[in-house]
Structure formats: C-alpha cells, structure tokens
Amino acid sequence: MIAHVRGRVAAVTLSSAVLEVGGVGLELMCTPGTLATLRTGQEASLPSSLVVREDSLTLFGFADEDEKAVFELVQTASGVGPKLAQAMLAVLSPDGVRTAIAVDDVKTLTKVPGIGQKGAQRIILELKDRIGAPTGRGAAAPAAPAAPWRDQVAQGLVGLGYNAKDADKAVEAVSEQAGVSTGATTEVDVATMLRLALRMLSKA
After folding, report:
1. Which domain holds residue 94?
2. 16, 57, 86, 122 — which has fewest CB within 10 A?
3. Is the overall model pTM greater than 0.90, yes or no?
4. How far apart are CA 124 and CA 98, in angstroms?
5. What's the pLDDT tens digit per position in 74-99?
6. Domain ends where: 41, 61, 81?
7. Name one GO molecular function term (predicted).
8. Nearest to residue 156, comparing CAs of 72, 10, 34?
C-alpha cells in the first residue's frame, strides 16, 4: 500500500494532481478542497489510498490523514465505492460526514450525487457505531486563480455526478452571487467557485 506521496506538483487538473516522485509522475485523484491546497511547481505531501481493481490501479490523494480515514471508512458501507466516497468528501467535510451519520441526517447525505434516501439510511445504519465524533478541524485553504473558470467549474460539477444543465445553472447563479462575469478568464478562484456551486446544488 502507498500511504503517502511526496514530490513536486507537476500539474493540477479539475479532479487530480500529478506529483513527480523520483522522475515519475504519479496521478492522484483529489477533491476540490484538496486540490485547492496545491500549487504547480511547489513541493507537496499527500496522504494517499491505493484502490486496486482488476483493470486498474488508482491513487487517491487527501489534504490530511483525517480526510483519508473517512474516505476509507465510508467505503466499508454497502454500495459505497471510491468514486462515491470521494464525492461525499467533495460535498461534505470529514466532520460533515461524521455529523450527518451520527445524527441520522439522511437529508444531508442525499445532497451527495449518487446517494438516495435508501442509500443514505444504509450508510447511517452500517457506519453509525464506527464513524466517530467530529474533530472540529477546519476546511482547506482556497486555490489560486485559474482560467477559463466557467468551463472548469461546470466540468468539475459534471465529474461529480451532476448533469450539464444543472451545472450550467449553478455556474450562472454563483457568478451572480459573487459578482463575477461568466466571461471572466482571470482573477477568478476556481476552487472557491466550485465549492459555492456544490453548496448551491446541495440545497436545491
């Protein structure tokens, strides 16, 4: 198992980061919050979890060990794979996941794309005694500006399971809320706009 990856950040995309380790570029799938902490060209160390399938080996990277622990724990629930586990951490913080499960908050869990009411009830039932109490840790820092921000945010939402129509509506809404033109290509914090869009969609 690969417990963590340390190296120079070679690239950051909407859903992953590439860290150069010993001349080899390792791609790690990450949440928007985790990607927001990374800067191309700088050194980074990410706790990681290797998911092995018959036809693939996928590395997932995390902002800290807490995020990694929740990612791995929720996958022990029936019907929760790595993609859904990552979506949970994209919409909710680790403490948000813990709290929702601890207080039987089905509504909050169903804000995650791919989790319906029955799925949320099952997750609560299977994990309530094992998820632990909230730690009170804060959220990740915002990312640096990137462009073209509108397409990046919309594509990020689609990658998390939302349809293109809802993604476009969310982009329009958060741009108005933030007072940013949808045609802007500079000085727009993509990770922050993506989190705002996720929050808006989760309340819909």
Report:
1. 65-127
2. 57
3. no
4. 10
5. 999 999 999 999 999 988 999 999 99
6. 61
7. four-way junction DNA binding
8. 34
